[in-house]
Amino acid sequence: MSDMSLNETIHPKDGHEPSMGDYYALMKPRVMSLVVFTALVGLLVSPVPVHPFIGFVGILCIAVGAGASGALNMWWDADIDAIMKRTAKRPIPSGKVAPGEALGIGVALSFFSVVLLWLATNALAAGLLAFTIFFYAVVYSMWLKRLTPQNIVIGGAAGAFPPMIGWAVATGSVTIESVLMFMLIFMWTPPHFWALALFVKTDYGDAGVPMLTETHGRDSTRKHVIVYTALLVPVAIGLGFTSIGGPVYLTVAVLMNAWFFKGAYDIWKRDDAAADADNYAVEKSVFKVSLYYLFAHFVALLIEAALRLNTGTF
Questions:
Q1: 31-83: per-residue pLDDT in tens?
Q2: What is the CA radius of gyration of the chain?
Q3: Has residue 312 been placed in a domain?
Q4: What confidence tens digit (pLDDT) does each residue in 99-147 have?
Q5: Residue 5: is it exposed, middle or buried by C-beta count within 10 angstroms (0-12/13-18/19+)?
Q6: Which of 107, 167, 258, 305 is such that its CA lies 20 to 30 A from the CA of 126?
Q7: Neighbours of 285 (CB within 10 A)
């Protein structure tokens, strides 16, 4: 099914009026929650104090921008979402929201969030938000997602920008601290999603999405998981030696990276026969660890910021 024919092939269910819950689901709330959290950390750990109202508006704009990206992604991907089991119940393929309506919402929220962020904070933060929306909706969703098995690596950049935007809201600049926060999420994304792809099995292949598991096989995917995890470790620990790091962060980073790398190593050492035998228990466990991993690092950064505030240092 071509994307251009979506408006002709997917319609809301007869008599169904979209609810607020349907529109909320269109904006990928789980992804939005991660965006808001990491952006807020980027703002709070910066050395420049921000007025609470300006900070609230800034985070709101980033959240709305993330929701706009989600709506545009769901509009474009409605054809493949209808095929994959884990996405078939999304608002468009389930017939709750019309594709054209999702497109309109996505475009309107994109302009609203970028313009308001510019007016409330600064041009750099607004520019980064605009680029993030464009990158996720156009570069990733419309171009590279269906073109290359490195789609997750490239797409990870969109999810990595929020702490950099939060930092820019406060400081109006991009520094080594914000770049490393970006790199932390960017390098974490591939092993996180490839662990998921290993036990989701045929969903991506059925939809024609060139996920690494489908194009290069599961053994190659396992190797990629450990390679990208190994590349992630120095980035995560290196952040601890910047102005926003410290002993609490470094302790958390060392422990979490040891845990995550051990999981990646266990995935690498396995084969499909072993994974089938225990119903992909290791892969599922590593995926769960990956969720704790990112949360723990950003909470540790918040703790370090609170300790600096308490001692009056930065």
A1: 889 999 999 999 999 999 999 999 999 999 999 999 999 999 999 988 888 88
A2: 20
A3: yes
A4: 899 999 999 999 999 999 999 999 999 999 999 999 999 988 888 888 8
A5: exposed
A6: 305
A7: 14
Tell me how far apart the alpha carbons of residues 63 and 31 are, in angstroms, rounded to a whole number.
10
User: How far is the CA of 91 from the CAs of 17, 124, 169, in angstroms?
Assistant: 12, 33, 32
Phi-psi domain of 19 (left: phi exceeds 0; alpha: psi -120 through 50; beta: other): beta
Residues ≥6 apart with Cβ < 8 Å to 280: 198, 199
Is a pLDDT exceeding 50 seen at residue 214? Answer: yes
The vertex-216 CA angle with 292 and 189, nearest 5°, equals: 20
Domain end point (choices 174, 193, 223): 174
Q: How far apart are CA 314 and CA 311, in angstroms?
A: 9
Query: 8 in a domain, yes or no?
Result: no
Indicate whether 11 belongs to any domain.
no
Task: Spell out the residues 6+ positions from residue 72 whose beta carbon is closer than 8 angstroms to its own.
Answer: 102, 103, 106, 107, 110, 133, 136, 137, 141
Helix axes 123-134, 99-120, angle to 10 degrees: 160
Describe the crossing of helices 52-76 and 123-134 by its angle, rounded to 10 degrees: 20
**Whether 201 and 284 share a structural domain:** yes
d(CA 297, CA 162): 15
Burial 174-189 (b: 16+ CB within 10 A, else e): ebebbbbbbbbbbbbb
Separation between Cα atoms, residue 271 and residue 47, nearest integer Å: 47
Which of 65, 104, 68, 45 has its CA nearest to residue 248?
45
d(CA 236, CA 228): 12
126 and 29 in a single domain? The answer is: yes
pTM of the entire structure? Answer: 0.88
